[in-house]
Amino acid sequence: MDHPVLLEMKGISKEFPGVKALDNVNLTVRAGTVHALMGENGAGKSTLMKCLFGIYNRDAGTITLDGKEIHFKSSKEALENGVAMVHQELNQALTRTVQDNLWLGRYPKTAGFVVSERIMDQRTKEIFDTLEVSVNPKAVMSTLPVSQRQMVEIAKAVSYDSKIIVFDEPTSSLDEEETQRLFAVVRKLKAQGLGVIFVSHFLDQIYELCDRITVLRNGELVGAYAVAELPRVELISKMIGKELGDIQSMGKNTALCGDEVLI
């Protein structure tokens, strides 16, 4: 039985001066699934996610979250309503502690105005335990490796009771061991019924982690496919707009470099 639909973006269009970045694009993400978003650079992936997250104001189309139509005006509004994004470039307060970064601007308070260290410690521990994140909440962010800083950002997203979490090229700065730790956390989010959108160039990672793929090309929707039913060479064909025979004759170094699509 299909998982219920959590997020539905229908007919999304966005135009900048002289450029149609998105033209009637659809994206459907179901609860308890990891959904890959793929396409060459300039295909419209980031623009689509920024329309979802309230960074861009879409020109046309509708977005429905958990059955309710939404139109976020800011990333803060998106976060407060269950949509979070873990950006490729982490924007964190590096001179503050891990715990400060989790709760900055919304510290738990007692009596409405006194910051409660006890509640903050408790909530932080609960989130870290749930995700099995091994990061010292009292550590200063600048002392942590990128992989741990990324885990803090995921924990922050979870702390907002997010229904949808977008990961934008999350493994670009991680080694294999760190990537597998990230995947373990993503699988936990999936098991908890969240919808995860995973933007990546790495084919091996897409086929290891994701359930479905939506492909964009030149700002338009190519299609949405089950990962298990889409051979890699067909995925590349859909992304770059070339026939299978053309891709095979181009050779490995033109279309692929190891497990990464050169896009």
Could you give a quick summary of the protein structure above?
The protein has 263 residues and is an alpha/beta fold.
Question: Keywords, please?
Answer:
4-stranded antiparallel β-sheet, 6-stranded mixed β-sheet, alpha/beta, 14 strands, 263 residues
The amount of beta strand, in percent, is 25-35%
Which H/E pattern describes the elements?
A: EEEHEEHEHEEHHEHEHEEHHHEE
Termini separation comes to 35 Å
Overall body shape: globular
Q: Trace the largest sheet across and list its strands.
A: 6-9-10-3-11-12
Content-based structural category:
alpha/beta
Give me the number of helical elements: 10
Ranges with pLDDT <50 over ≥5 residues?
A: 252-258
**What's the β-strand tally?**
14
Q: Main beta sheet: strand number and arrangement?
A: 6 strands, mixed
Average residue-wise pLDDT: 89
- Radius of gyration equals 19 Å
Estimate percent helicity. 25-40%
